[in-house]
């Protein structure tokens, strides 16, 4: 891959930036996320996860040590108004 | 002065800022132990709010100093902390809340914090998107603001490492080895660390660690949840706190809207989130700023407040172990207090002089009846 390849399209992070962060000691996906903001945008990591894992393996992190970023609600982004509705459930 | 062999337990902003202050002033043998990756605990899960609008004199003074340190952080550490000073705007919905604002403002002015009271019309002018129905008065302070939490942890980590501090993620403390009435070794899942001085800076995990050497702490963890939305063009200058709910709403430098609000006490055994929170915060946000109801939520998560019986932190040495310094119990505002508190605590550890603003926070105070309760804790 050329170094200018975009790994995280939501936050505009390149492959070179990911490798530089790994060189600075960010050797797991949760640390990369907090250092580069990969996975904090609209897709919440659904697009960049596989590429991040592959680069970590290429940089010498054992594949069995790589864990995905924690997935949290909502599953897909949704407007606040959808959750604020007055339908069943209550507080 | 090379200083004692120091082990700090907890790699959040509290432990890291203390390590940096000690290293900057000449201590050469400091290790910070973090049980997870960096930015895993409360420092990374908080809202990043920085404010001097408090109800007790010591909190006002400490936060006035801390705000200066957030301002100078990029120069001090070489790392951009994305601090945006749009002010905090508290909103009162009753005469009692308005009276509290007036009383607090007077006290804040006495300590050099230029907060001001705003009428509903002035509030509407500052943030036209707010529904001002029911608001009696606002309290605003321009120098308050919001900072990017991850950046503070990275910045302190890098600055610490430059000064020779060992910052070690994935080192979970499993035991505290005693020799006589002192801790001689901090044992982790990756080996032991001999220590002359041990600082406990593990927030909500502190009681569990203190128990390893027989010390009982009165703190307990409380789960608080938060959400963040898609990024928007900047429109929300101040951070908002409507006091009828205690909700916090702020737009970060990245453009996202961040919000949190307390639910009825939740057990703090894990980081799981609830639909009850999502519903509550969505309703409150849409009521306060109706236009937000069209904005999309990206993520919901949880973190722990580190609660003490009188809402004040626990700081200082204990009788036994005699080399075990306490630095925790910072409720939900350790992130903003840490830069100034660590400066004062470094003073204490280096010179033996304990600043009067933190001398009141010793563990033994609970036997004397505790302290004045802070009225402005939210979220």
Condensed summary:
The complex is a heterodimer of chains A (91) and B (379). Chain A is mainly alpha-helical and 91 residues long. Chain A contains 4 helices and 3 strands; from the N terminus they run E-E-H-H-H-E-H.
Write structural notes for this entry.
The complex is a heterodimer of chains A (91) and B (379). Chain A is mostly helical and 91 residues long. Chain A is built from 4 helices and 3 strands; from the N terminus they run ββαααβα. Helix content of chain A is 34%, strand content 8%. In chain A, a hairpin with a 4-residue loop joins strand 1 and strand 2 (13-14). Chain B has 2 domains: 6-45 and 150-219 and 309-368, FAD/NAD(P)-binding domain (3-Layer(bba) Sandwich), CATH 3.50.50.60; 85-145 and 220-307, D-Amino Acid Oxidase, subunit A, domain 2 (D-Amino Acid Oxidase, Chain A, domain 2, 2-Layer Sandwich), CATH 3.30.9.10. Chain B is 31% helix and 25% strand. A 6-stranded mixed beta sheet of chain B has the order 8-2-1-12-19-18. A 4-stranded mixed beta sheet of chain B has the order 5-6-4-14. In chain B, strands 15-16-13-17 form a 4-stranded antiparallel beta sheet, covered by helices on one side. In chain B, a hairpin with a 4-residue loop joins strand 15 and strand 16 (256-260). In chain B, helix 1 (13-24) runs parallel beside helix 6, helix 1 (13-24) packs parallel to helix 9 and helix 3 crosses helix 9. The A-B interface holds A 28, 30-31, 34-35, 37, 40-42, 44, 70, 72-74, 77-84, 89, 91 and B 37-40, 44, 150, 153-154, 169, 229-230, 254, 271, 273, 275-276, 278-280, 282-283, 285-286, 292-301.
